[in-house]
Amino acid sequence: MQLSDLMPERKTTLRQTNASITRTGRQIICEWHLTRLVDEQGRAIGVAALVDDVTEREVARSELMRQANYDTLTGLPNRLLANDRLNQAVKYARRYKKSAAVLFVDLDMFKHVNDTMGHEWGDRLLQQVSIRLQSCVREQDTVARLGGDEFLVILAGLNTMVDAELVAEKILTSVAMPFVLDGHNFFLSASIGITGFPGDQEDVGVLLRNADTAMYKAKEEGRNTYCFYTDDMNLQARERMTLESELRQALDNKELYLVYQPQVNLLDGQVVGVEALLRWRNGALGEVEPSIFIPVAESAGMIDLIGSWVLADACRQLTQWYRQGFDQLVLAVNVSSRQLRDEGFVENLQILLRVSGCPPERLKLEITESTLLADEQQTRITLEKIKMLGVGVVLDDFGVGYSSLSYLSKYAFNTLKIDRSFVQNANRRSEDASLCRAIVAMARSLNLQVIAEGVECKEQLEFLKEAGVTIVQGFLYSRPVTAGQLERLLVANEMVL
Fold first, then answer.
1. What's the pTM?
2. Which of 6, 204, 367, 485 could disulfide-link to 481, CB 3.0 to 4.6 Å?
3. Helical H runs in 365-478?
4. Greater confidence, 372 or 341?
5. pLDDT of residue 233
6. What superfamily in CATH does domain 3-62 come from?
7. In this predicted structure, what is the pLDDT of residue 375?
8. Strand partners, 181
């Protein structure tokens, strides 16, 4: 090799970085600085070389690049690298007349895992999920983690979008298999939104937004499914954004309010309790159904703030009723698992009871079975502290979640609530009837009060009486009513059938 080949004529200095092996066998990265030496006539007479060991600098640079492009928890590409991979997939598809697909994968109800089991267990599950997702795709495809429980799957060089559908089905099947952590089985599901090129768009940002929109549609259709993007979904996405924006202002605008559904003692027809239920009346949207806005509040991270307001307003109302002479009325308030996981929840409840003057023995907190998936010792301690304040604890929707007989003896429950799905079918299906009778018998043996919700017809009522249930609530007696309407019902005693 001539010196002129090494040192181009127009350059006097050449800088080059390459890997080298030392005499001890250690691999290092060197940076070479070569400078041409010339005489007075400009003729080359030699070259000066300066060699620097830049191993640490290059390793640090490589680590920075890795951190900038890969997720630290799972090792998957992050959003930045995923955007680049998607760009490449679209360019490849355009050049070779192929298709590219984007699958937006979101784990269903994963927040409940973090809320009940803690983020450490949640992180371990996410690591296992990432491995399963990678097993569902080809080597040339990309699985990325966008953050939280959201993943992106980029399928490059597809022949048709049918291939994307097959991958989505494979992912759903894989995620549905039990995850095992420290001997415990966890069951997850996923909602998947699918979009692709050519067809929907070729702009990377729009493709990602469309896949995200389709994913939310999959959740609306019951979760554990996939949905292809359609143009109509844009309108639905805008409506959801409007709903979330309005909901964020609902507390300040005093748009949220409580209604109360009576709970009736079948022995004498008296109202012995009420359940507080949240409602939202918006100036622009009108009356918004709880089934619509509560999932939005959960996904948008507003459920804690709203739940705290509900509890405070319910205690205020209960205090007012108590002072009006309705001193035997018990008020039940639903509490989310996120609220119970708050270390200051019991202390804040104690302060609320003292400030509001609410009699603790007249208040009950309703929790669902999913809450009991948390660390057993900590959950038990929290519920016992609540009970020590004199506040009752109700296990709501019993039978539809992670039902375990051990829950009833292990935790400090006062009341068991039979889910409405069993009540509504008890007079038509022998299986539900048998289950209701078994729940009542079991609760009696544990000295627990039983409430049946969702009673809508006299046939259901007669069955529940025969089964031994003494307290019921449902449309047969009353729909949820305002505080004023309830007071008039109490005075008139109109609950007797």
1. 0.62
2. 485
3. 376-388, 405-410, 420-425, 430-445, 458-467
4. 341
5. 74
6. PAS domain (3.30.450.20)
7. 55
8. 184
| Owner of token pair 């604890």 | 393
Residues of the chain with CATH 3.20.20.450: 243-492
The residues with which 460 forms a beta bridge, in sequence order, are none
Q: What is the pLDDT of residues 215-271, one digit of tens each?
A: 988 988 888 999 999 877 767 777 778 888 899 999 899 999 999 999 999 988 889
Alpha helices (H) along 136-181: 162-176
Please spell the DSSP secondary structure of 43-79, one letter per residue.
-EEEEEEEEEE-HHHHHHHHHHHHHHHB-TTT--B-H
Q: In the chain, where does the domain assigned CATH 3.30.450.20 lie?
A: 3-62
Q: How far apart, in whole angstroms, are the C-alpha atoms of residue 135 and residue 388?
A: 50
3-state secondary structure at position 165: helix
* 221: three-class secondary structure by DSSP: coil
* Gap between the Cα atoms of 239 and 298, Å rounded: 17
For residue 481, what is the DSSP state? B
Encoded amino acid at 219, one letter: K
Is the distance from CB of 102 to CB of 142 less than 8 angstroms? no
Contacts of 252 (CB under 8 A, 6+ apart): none
Q: Where do we find the tokens 């609950």?
A: 495
Of 89, 117, 134, nearest to 373 (Cα)?
Answer: 117
Angle at 216 between CA 104 and CA 126, to 5 degrees: 50
- The closest alpha carbon to 399, from 362, 364, 377, 424, belongs to 424
Phi and psi at 260, nearest 5°, equal -135, 130
Token pair, residue 134, equals 């990678």
Any idea what the Cα angle at residue 400 is, between residues 397 and 403, rounded to 5°? 95
Question: In angstroms, rounded to a whole number, what is the distance separating the alpha carbons of residues 244 and 282?
Answer: 12
Q: Are 337 and 367 in contact, with CB atoms under 8 Å apart?
A: yes
Whether the per-residue pLDDT at 397 is higher than 80: the answer is: no
The SS3 assignment for 181 reads strand
> Can you spell out the DSSP letters for 5-57?
HHS-TT-SEEEEEEEEE-TTS-EEEEEEEEEEEE-TTS-EEEEEEEEEE-HHH
Give CA–CA dist 107/224, Å, rounded.
9
Cα distance between residue 341 and residue 382, in whole Å? 9
CATH 3.40.50.720 fits 70-230, yes or no: no
Nearest residue to 131 (alpha-carbon basis) of 167, 164, 175, 165: 175
Burial class (CB in 10 A: 0-12, 13-18, 19+), 437: middle
Q: How many CA atoms lie within 13 A of 204 on its CB side?
A: 15
With H, G, I as helix, E, B as strand and everything else as coil, classify residue 222: coil
Which tens digits make up the pLDDT trace of 459-468?
999 989 988 8
Full 3-state SS string of 281-332: EECCCEEECHHHHHHHHHHCCCHHHHHHHHHHHHHHHHHHHHHHCCCCCEEE
| Fold of the 243-492 domain | TIM Barrel (3.20.20)
Compute the distance between CA of residue 45 and CA of residue 37 in angstroms, rounded to an integer.
6
